[in-house]
TrEMBL record:
Annotated protein name in UniProt: WD40 repeat domain-containing protein
Source species: Victivallis vadensis
Signal sequence segment: 1-19
Phylogenetic classification of the source organism: Bacteria, Pseudomonadati, Lentisphaerota, Lentisphaeria, Victivallales
Keywords, sorted A to Z: Signal
Domain of life per record: Bacteria
Transmembrane segments: none
């Protein structure tokens, strides 16, 4: 059994509601507190009971140690300010998170245990788990993705975790495609395809393709358009990628390797789809919003307003029978 399988077995203590009762919750990366928070849709978010789980990394004693690969030698917890990503993983038993100040971590929901925490730095916007348990992060300021070898992770010195770095211009999104056994990343000029070589000693990535957006206008003469891709997610059927940009949300068909417009919605920071229902985060102040957006449900959008919050990304997660 690989590392991911072992983690999933260890994490089965949260009890999920039965299918008949199941009502998805929403998990958000919230920068005002800062915290990663699971919120119920059973009541308005101005009701404190809507908040059913949260983890504040800055206050977590598991992160109270120096970060050895930080130039300023700040404590690890300081590098988790400004949460920038949250992804339910391992059958929704863990959260894979990043923070703009430099950190990435895997958190077990059941007991808020930090399974590992690493430090890609330079404004990490996203992360993806690989089949062997390693992780890839995307850093926009540094224009790179970084592959961490977690087989050599040392909990006493997480900053020393070995990593390989690869250029990816304005890297923002990264996602693992299990069907094709490929990693995909989004950035300034398009979507990159990466082949993963799993090796306990020297895991590696190799770029297998690059797919820019081509200007369709005659005057463009086939020049590249700046995609400036932000969030990157697989559609539930695993056949397309959705990439959010400053202009619209585009679909990237993984069979034809071609783009089409999905939604004429600009500046969407995150998109999540469950059972055909779309959840988005559209900033109302700079890069954040105190509310999430359901494009086809204005009433539900109005009830999902978290007072004082600065939400950066939001994802669906099946409802957990547990309290904070």
């Amino acid at each position: 059994m690989n590392r991911l399988g072992k983690l999933a077995v260890l994490a089965l203590s949260p009890v999920l509601l039965g299918a008949a009762e199941q009502l998805p919750d929403i998990v958000v990366a919230e920068q005002a507190e800062p915290a990663y928070v699971i919120l119920s849709l059973k009541q308005s978010w101005d009701n404190p009971e809507a908040r059913i789980w949260s983890w504040n990394p800055v206050m977590d004693k598991q992160l109270f140690l120096p970060c050895s690969n930080d130039p300023e030698r700040r404590p690890c917890n300081e590098l988790f300010r400004a949460p920038s990503e949250v992804k339910p993983v391992l059958d929704n038993t863990h959260l894979l998170v990043t923070a703009s100040h430099g950190g990435a971590a895997l958190i077990r929901i059941a007991d808020k245990r930090v399974i590992w925490h690493v430090y890609p730095h330079n404004n990490p916007h996203s992360a993806a788990l690989l089949p062997d348990g390693n992780v890839v992060t995307a850093s926009s300021n540094g224009s790179y993705i970084r592959l961490f070898n977690l087989a050599k992770y040392n909990s006493a010195d997480p900053g020393s975790t070995p990593a390989e770095q690869y250029f990816a211009d304005d890297a923002h999104g990264v996602v693992w495609d299990a069907k094709r056994e490929r990693l995909w990343s989004s950035g300034r000029w398009g979507i990159c395809e990466w082949q993963y070589h799993a090796d306990p000693e020297h895991p590696a990535l190799k770029q297998a393709g690059f797919y820019p957006m081509i200007d369709p206008e005659p005057q463009g003469r086939g020049t590249y358009l700046q995609l400036n891709g932000h969030d990157l997610v697989l559609t539930p059927d695993g056949e397309q990628l959705l990439v959010t940009t400053e202009k619209a949300i585009y679909r990237f068909d993984l069979r034809s390797r071609s783009y089409s417009t999905s939604h004429a919605l600009a500046d969407i920071k995150s998109i999540s789809i469950l059972a055909g229902r779309e959840l988005m985060l559209k900033p109302t102040e700079s890069w954040w919003s105190p509310a999430v957006l359901f494009p086809d449900d204005k009433k539900l959008s109005a009830s999902c307003h978290l007072p004082g919050a600065k939400i950066y990304k939001a994802r669906w997660i099946p409802r957990l029978k547990q309290s904070e």
